[in-house]
Amino acid sequence: MADFPPPPVASAAQPPITAVLVAYALYAIAAIGGVISSGLVHFAPLVAIAGIVGVIVAYVKRGDARGTWVESHCTWLIRTFWWSLLWSVVAVAIGTVLMLVLIGFLLLPVALAVVSIWVIYRVVRGYLAFKDSQPLPVG
Questions:
Q1: How far apart are CA 125 and CA 127, in angstroms?
Q2: Do residues 73 and 126 lie in contact, with contact meaning Cβ atoms separated by under 8 Å?
Q3: Rounded CA gap, 6 and 123, in Å?
Q4: Which residues are CB-neighbours of 60 under 8 A, at least 6 positions away?
Q5: pLDDT digits (tens, 9 = 90+) for 37-56
Q6: Domain segments of the chain: what residues?
Q7: CA 72 – CA 65 distance, rounded (Å)
Q8: Helices then strands (H, E): number in the chain?
């Protein structure tokens, strides 16, 4: 009988670095576009799609990143998305009510720009840690 060599032992899988980098890029596009598109109604939905695709990538790849430093980046991006969505909905609700007294017309674009700037901060902070292969604090 012929002896066949044993199959090679699978090495530890690499964390999904490229996918998380793509998610950071999509978030950056969405955040910068959010600041720019405050008055551009037709551009805003396209920008929102980039953020939604980014959070989907983060959710899909978080399982592959489990137990690595990349997992904290996936969680960071997911939390950034949900908190920014919550704050945007609150800003729109309050801004819409305040439009009755005309201050909402000024407040709403400013509030949405502040949310976008916060997302830019989170993307920059996360990316700087990511490029140094450092985990982020999540909790």
A1: 6
A2: yes
A3: 45
A4: 19
A5: 765 656 667 778 899 999 99
A6: 17-130
A7: 9
A8: 4, 0
